[in-house]
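In line with agreed milestones, the collection of sequences with tokenised folds has grown. A representative record is reproduced below.
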Amino acid sequence: MIYAAALVVAALCGGLALVVPDRARPVLVALALVLAGFLNAGWSAHRVAEPVLGFRYYGPVSGRIADVDRSNSGQERITLEDVVLNRVDPAKTPRKVRISLYYPDLFVVLEPGRRVMVTAHLSPPSGPVEPGGFDFRRHAWFLGLGAIGYAREPLLEFAPPDRSGAMMRLTALRLQLGAAIRGRLEGQGGAFAAAILTGDRSAIAPDVVEVLRSSNLAHLLAISGLHMGLLVGFVFAAIRYGLALVPPVALRLPVRKLAAMIALVAAAAYLALSGANVATERAFIMVAVMLLAVLLDRRALTLRAVTLAASIVLLLRPVSLIEAGFQMSFAATAALVAAFAALRARGWMMSGRAWWQGVLRNIVMLALSSAIAGLATAPVAAFHFNRIAHFGLLANLASVPVMGTLVMPSAVMAMLAAPFGLDAPFWAVVGAGIDWILLVATEIANLDGAVGHVVKPPTMVLGLLALGGAVLVLMRGNLRLVGLVPIIASFLWWGQGGRPDLLISENGRLLGLETAEGRWLNRAKGNGFAARIWLENDGDAAMQDEAAARLDGERLLAARRIAYDPGKLPDIARLAPLCAAGYLVIQPRGKRLEGDCPQISGDDLAAHGAVAVSWRGDKVRIVFADQVGGNRLWSR
């Protein structure tokens, strides 16, 4: 019903925009576009709908390997499609499931197309670990994943491989290229090279990922705008200047447009070979819009081009709007375009014909680019990841030039020279460049105070930041300064939201109680993901076992008037008097008691997910994850 109403209002606004005076037209057009975006978002969520497993499952799972990667803990992981579950109706069987493999020996080569079976534990994608937190169910919904799980039994191949389908063949080719690259470069250098060229990050060690994150260089691993821009820039420059060296060609053909066309083909090939993930698709759209501007004799780097690219991304995948990658990519791009346009308009761009002036200009431009992009993305990264790399600018200044001048150009040349057996010198340069980047990342990450942790802010803080950034970028003259008002307000609000006094995990087995010494956890092991996210959201660098050892849990719970019984058969004789005394009663496996005390039962957790509890004097406020997330397709 709501979609029908939105469609009617959007059509009405669009029709009125054709007949109203010019002053009123932008408002009606804007309203029509907002409603059209709402309709597109709803349609996209329904379009990707697939069955989701409705219960915990243990038993045989068979299917075709669609992808191979590693989990955040470094465990090998496969995504299966064409899934068959024992005694589960095919209409209720997920189309795709993702399984982490814990069996020490693999008897099957993990590659796309192989038809395998394994005994596995599967469960539906889990909800947020706390109300208002990241909802993995939504993420899995748009990936088409209907279940996730793990296997501690061997993987078996039960039928000949089936590599039919263009995407399956491309995925197999991508993984083969990744293996070939790792054969040319040993160790983590080869794993890094395979990751940036093919998107295959399966060989990257978890400790390497961590030092890259701590030094703010993790973006070098994800094939995004930087990599696509470096590749396209190198191909465009090489073709353009190469053809310019041939006078008959340069005088008769539109060299710049030819270079743009070839660069666009190179970008499309890179997109296909790198797995066409969300970040790479977004980067391809951005460079494609800019290269098309060159073909149409328009300026490539303008805010209009950035806006058009963002609109195309949102049209194709509306959920990108709330993802960190989209927000950071377009925040950095818009800030760079606006900043350099302002510098150019004021005549502050360095010029000169001497060679040293060109070198100095490039160094200053690089430093400015890193500083501007860092300032634009740092608040967004802090909002989503609760951490700030204090020396990230230094690490990027030392690494990005190497990435752009040595690693990517040499990698392109190596790929072109490989069929002729002439690629070894280029791989040597790639390896040297990557070794330098990893050295910088390690040294920066090991500095005292390299990483700072920040408290998770209220959700509206990001909206204020976006509003202020948009005003700074889009307005002209002194009106830009108005954008500082919401930005300053967002930073003032950042630390004022407060964190819940008590957090309870989705299964009720983990409690996190806020104290003067930090959040105390009732378990030193188990529910590790929820524990880590809670502590990160608190801006707390402690590990789970450290948080569990902070205080005497029994005394702490009693002092806070909390009665917790995780047993299968809760002690009603003990809990009933406590409920009568006004205690908060938590029974993850029990039923609600008779009485007026605040309660959280197993049925409550199963129906509504994780819980946040806050005390305001004698009043207890209980908020469930589903109360914040709402009734969505992925939460039903």
Summary: The longest helix spans residues 355-385. The chain has a mean pLDDT of 89.
